[in-house]
Amino acid sequence: MTMLEQTLIFIKRDGDEILLGLKLRGFEIGKWNGYGGKMEIGELPAECAKRELFEESGLVVEVADLKYLGILKFYRSEKILDRLVHLYVCSVYKGYPRTTEEMKPKWFSSEALPFKEMWEDCAHWIEFVVKEIKFTGTFYSDNMNNLVNYCVEAIYLN
Ligand SMILES: Nc1[nH]c(=O)nc2c1ncn2[C@H]1C[C@H](O)[C@@H](COP(=O)(O)OP(=O)(O)OP(=O)(O)O)O1
């Protein structure tokens, strides 16, 4: 199986609120997450983040307004790089989030995120999204897809 390169974007409103989408189909159906998906051939990560957000929520953002937060790396069988996810936050957007075939939107206070209904690893890094601190996260799962180890570190670069 080839490695997947994806993007994930969190839209913020009024400083404190974060937009999540309830996954309505496919992998991890029934979970809340930011918006995103697979990068297309020749596409830059920020362009993918903008496109996927529009396709899944109807919101429009400009690439220049996206803040790059870092990379999540997911290893399966504890050693094979399975998925690489580029993370963004953005507080400047146009439109109102709508329900699409893929996602149902809802604004959450950053202090009341639905961790039990989000990806398991999310609880270990979402504070970096809330505080907008650049970071990198590496996650190791076993053959049964259980998270067995992880490392999350802030990156102190400009
Ligand atoms: N372990 C993980 N934790 C997390 O919080 N988000 C993850 C994650 N692994 C992937 N994501 C994000 C990346 C992406 O934005 C989103 C959707 O992943 P999927 O595998 O469902 O992609 P899709 O098949 O929906 O992509 P497209 O078909 O291109 O829309 O979940």
Automatic annotation (TrEMBL):
It is an enzyme of class 3 (hydrolase). Its cofactor is Mg(2+). Keywords: Hydrolase, Magnesium, Metal-binding, Nucleus. SUPFAM superfamilies: Nudix. It is found in: Nucleus. PROSITE patterns: NUDIX, NUDIX_BOX. Residues 1-135 form the Nudix hydrolase domain. It catalyses: 2-oxo-dATP + H2O = 2-oxo-dAMP + diphosphate + H(+); O(6)-methyl-dGTP + H2O = O(6)-methyl-dGMP + diphosphate + H(+); N(6)-methyl-dATP + H2O = N(6)-methyl-dAMP + diphosphate + H(+); 8-oxo-dATP + H2O = 8-oxo-dAMP + diphosphate + H(+). It comes from the Eukaryota. It holds the Pfam family NUDIX. InterPro entries: 8ODP, NUDIX_hydrolase-like_dom_sf, NUDIX_hydrolase_CS, NUDIX_hydrolase_dom. Its main location: nucleus. Its EC number is 3.6.1.56. Monomer. Oxidized purine nucleoside triphosphate hydrolase which is a prominent sanitizer of the oxidized nucleotide pool. Catalyzes the hydrolysis of 2-oxo-dATP (2-hydroxy-dATP) into 2-oxo-dAMP. Also has a significant hydrolase activity toward 2-oxo-ATP, 8-oxo-dGTP and 8-oxo-dATP. Through the hydrolysis of oxidized purine nucleoside triphosphates, prevents their incorporation into DNA and the subsequent transversions A:T to C:G and G:C to T:A. Also catalyzes the hydrolysis of methylated purine nucleoside triphosphate preventing their integration into DNA. Belongs to the Nudix hydrolase family. This is Oxidized purine nucleoside triphosphate hydrolase. It comes from Nicrophorus vespilloides.
